[in-house]
Input
Amino acid sequence: MGDIQYAGLSFEQVVQKYKNTVGSVCVMRLNSHSDADDCFQNTFIRLFKKSPRFESEEHLKAWLIHVAINECKRFQRKNRPYISIENSNDAIVSFPQEKCDMSWALFELDTKYRDVIYLYYCEKYKVNEIALILNKSPNTVKTLLKRGREKLKILYGGVDSE
Amino acid sequence: MNDFNFDRMKSFNTPTEWAEKAREIPEKYKNPTPFLFFHVSRSFAAVASLVLVCSLSVLFFIFKPDDNILPVNPDATLSYETVSKTESVEPMDPTYETGKPQNPDEYVNIEPTESQQSTENPTTVSPTQKPTNSTEYTEPTQKPTDSAPTTEPTQKPTDSKPTSKPTEKPTQKPTNDPSQNPTAGTTSNPVICKGSYSFNNSWEVNSVDVFCKLYDSSGNLMGDKDLYSYQHEASIDSMSISMVYVSYEPTSKGLLLPKGQYSFYFYDYFGKILSHGYVTVS
Output
């Protein structure tokens, strides 16, 4: 188990270090705890099976996010129609609006905006990096970012200070 | 947007059991279970089919008529006593040409033909999804020694007639004798499907699995109905600049193919068709 190295880290170290990142991506995408668990596991299974070479830890992290998103897409595609957060008993706890927390609003967005907004604001990726992770062009990412902000503004009712 | 609080999302704490399960992955996948036992029902069917094929092969081998006595004359009857090795049997079929198999099934045709666009399964191949590259196929790794025109008049196998049955192979034991190779089942040679496609960046190659599915001439899917199961997993052979070369060997996945022509499709786990072609199993 300790033989394979991923950007200098063992498999266990990778799991420990990036579990929250991968978990957040899955939860953000799927709105369901058990579904996110499946995709979380599948992401690391894929890491173990593929064992690609990584130039750096940033490369590793970006790869994990890319695979996690793909796993979530695959899961949603396979399990259509997927249960909405209102109907699912297994959904994560919704975030109260009064705490000025964007999470609830993020979940109201379409997944394509959610991905971009999450990666840009939560993971602090740049547009070009997001484009690489999501396999989209930078212009598409910029457009999604812009539209995502506008939708969030409508949902949240705040002012865009940027 | 700076006023918006994303801390809640960033600080999502993954449950410890998720991480513990993930840590066990290397142990769990260190010794992959053989495909025969991957699913009980599938393993049972695979074992049963193997047993059936082996017994049929043994029966065929035991009761295989001697080359000498197979009549070339369609009117003649099979007789194990009447024809001896020293007798010569002239081909009765006037259309028989030296070096030309009579039985079209004996052709081992692996070459793709772009013109033979499959319409057997239109729902899975979008007309707009043209494969970006021509599909490449290889002949079976073991070119059968007897797939070529079987008998030449000048060929004298040790115990067969020189101009005996055009469809009959020399009695030298073929390398793909089913009785010696029970896993080949109904296929005389390993079937390998190969294809290639272009990719935009290395993310796709390292993070996306490639699968392959085969349809027979009637449009029936061969193998597991779950198109993303182990039985349909293809392999990435090599990569060049912007090109990926993939292959799929159904027999290694426990998929026994009867004789016939098949269309195959390589696809990713989003169902996007990457490459397709045809293969004939003799």
